[in-house]
Amino acid sequence: MKIFAVIPSGGTGKRTNSALPKQYIQFNGKELIAYTLDVFQKCEMIDEIVIPAQKDFFKLLDEIKEHYSFTKLSKIIEGGEERQNSVFNALKSLNASDEDLVVVHDAVRPLLPQSVLINAIETAKQFGSAVVATRAKDTLIKGNDFVLSFVDRTEFFYAQTPQIFSYKILLKALKKAEEDKFLGTDESMLVHRVGHKIKLVEGSSFNFKITNQDDIKLFGLISEHR
Q1: Is the pLDDT of residue 226 over 90?
Q2: Residue 61: which CATH number?
Q3: How far apart are CA 217 and CA 110, in angstroms?
Q4: Which of 201, 190, 78 is nearest to 133 (CA)?
Q5: Which whole-number Å values give the CA distances from 4 to 36, 90, 118, 141, 195, in the listed order?
Q6: Do residues 142 and 151 make contact, with C-beta atoms less than 8 angstroms apart?
């Protein structure tokens, strides 16, 4: 069994109002995506890394690969219009068998603990799927400008990545989404939609997604002490 990591890197940075997509912003002289790639390079269970990205950033990604000796980064391919298109392109580029595992992880979650990654992979080996998630800790409110009601948080989770599936299951889900012109928010939604059970794996508060300016400031502070 081979284990492939797919790191979609086609985001444009709209929510940070940045001219440069946030995954390429430097923190202490090192691009954000390089911190993320470090996690997968160091994980002994990962065999290959593939990055679907915008063509404009192929040269930069090649430079990052060489500079940090990311030997597991085997392919940088053209991404699609949406995240799931990029993941689909990555899957089609793999020389994978049905039971190989595909680990999809956000380029902008650079603090994924090795213990969470390893636990998720081991879980996916057993169940064919695994989604890292954290239990809702805060009070959940339904509302608009005013509070309408409160939601029982005991059965709610915040989805993170990695999301891990056998190649066969994920390919089936992506093909079905393309046929139906269905756009999901992540891979777990697409896999659940075609009837597969997905095992939840405990995530980590460290594994936050860098989405807005506050997240950038927070990671900037953290990276100064790494």
Answers
A1: no
A2: 3.90.550.10
A3: 14
A4: 201
A5: 15, 10, 13, 38, 23
A6: yes
Where does the pLDDT of residue 172 fall: very low under 50, low under 70, confident under 90, or very high at 90 and above? very high
- From first CA to last CA, the distance across the chain in angstroms is 33
Domain count, the chain: 1
CA angle, residues 184, 139, 131, in degrees to nearest 5: 35
For residues 23 and 33, the answer to whether their CB atoms sit within 8 Å is: yes
- In the DSSP assignment, the letter for residue 139 is P
Calculate the average pLDDT of the chain: 95
Q: Is the pLDDT of residue 161 over 70?
A: yes
Containing structural domain, residue 99: 3-223
- pLDDT digit string (tens) for 8-62? 998 655 554 567 899 999 999 999 999 999 999 999 999 999 999 999 999 999 9
Task: Give the pair of three-digit tokens for residue 220.
Answer: 């900037």
